[in-house]
């Protein structure tokens, strides 16, 4: 669903010191940006940011970067960084296509992909954030033996993604077709996930480890 255009979003984010429109300059220097050597976790397609915001509040010893091309959603996430005084969070309004322009080899300790667009039409599937051409880029910026955490409501996307990860040489650590909150008590339920659960749609969850 496309959000209504928020004309205030980009000007407001330009005033936010935790948002980068020129993040390329930080490539290879994100530890310096955060001012420490804590692990850096990246959420691709963060939307309104609840997952990263809640994670960052729980884990102050981890640095988080959230990226999303949709500024109409990301504006709400970036406001929260300031409101919650989360010095361990940064944000960038970027296209995942260009991820290698912003992060150096082995700079990320983990990647999260939560409820991304399933792009069901065959001609569009190469746009999926779990498609092999994206996975090859993630492999560059991930440290060896780091993981990608993936959640979706879409069965076709999940089944296809399992194959994508295998084809790209990832080791499959978890492939759960019905993720229960009881089994994963630390799971952060976003508004999308809550909606799908209320509709009785099983949440699919996977963890995939990267080896060079």
From TrEMBL:
PROSITE patterns: SAM_MT_TRMB. Its EC number is 2.1.1.33. Pathway: tRNA modification; N(7)-methylguanine-tRNA biosynthesis. Pfam families: Methyltransf_4. It comes from the Bacteria. S-adenosyl-L-methionine binds at residues 43, 68, 95, 117. It catalyses: guanosine(46) in tRNA + S-adenosyl-L-methionine = N(7)-methylguanosine(46) in tRNA + S-adenosyl-L-homocysteine. Signal peptide: none annotated. Substrate binds at residues 121, 153, 190-193. One of its GO terms (molecular function) is tRNA (guanine(46)-N7)-methyltransferase activity. InterPro entries: SAM-dependent_MTases_sf, tRNA_(Gua-N-7)_MeTrfase_Trmb, tRNA_methyltr_TrmB_bact. Catalyzes the formation of N(7)-methylguanine at position 46 (m7G46) in tRNA. HAMAP family: tRNA_methyltr_TrmB. This is tRNA (guanine-N(7)-)-methyltransferase.
């Amino acid at each position: 669903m496309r959000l209504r255009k928020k004309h205030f979003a980009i000007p407001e984010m330009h005033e936010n010191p935790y948002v980068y429109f020129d993040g390329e300059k930080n490539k290879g220097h994100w530890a310096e940006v955060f001012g420490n050597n804590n692990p850096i976790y990246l959420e691709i397609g963060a939307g309104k940011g609840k997952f990263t915001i809640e994670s960052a509040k729980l884990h102050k010893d981890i640095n988080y970067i959230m990226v999303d091309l949709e500024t109409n959603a990301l504006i709400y996430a970036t406001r929260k960084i300031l409101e919650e005084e989360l010095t361990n969070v940064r944000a960038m309004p970027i296209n995942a296509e260009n991820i290698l322009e912003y992060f150096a080899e082995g700079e990320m300790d983990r990647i999260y992909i939560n409820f991304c667009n399933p792009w069901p039409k065959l001609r569009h599937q190469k746009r999926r954030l779990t498609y092999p051409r994206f996975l090859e880029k993630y492999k560059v910026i991930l440290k060896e033996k780091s993981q990608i955490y993936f959640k979706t409501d879409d069965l076709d996307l999940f089944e296809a993604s399992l194959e994508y990860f295998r084809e790209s040489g990832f080791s499959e650590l978890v492939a759960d077709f019905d993720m229960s909150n009881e089994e994963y008590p630390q799971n952060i339920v976003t508004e999308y996930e809550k909606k799908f659960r209320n509709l009785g749609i099983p949440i699919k969850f996977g963890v995939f480890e990267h080896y060079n």
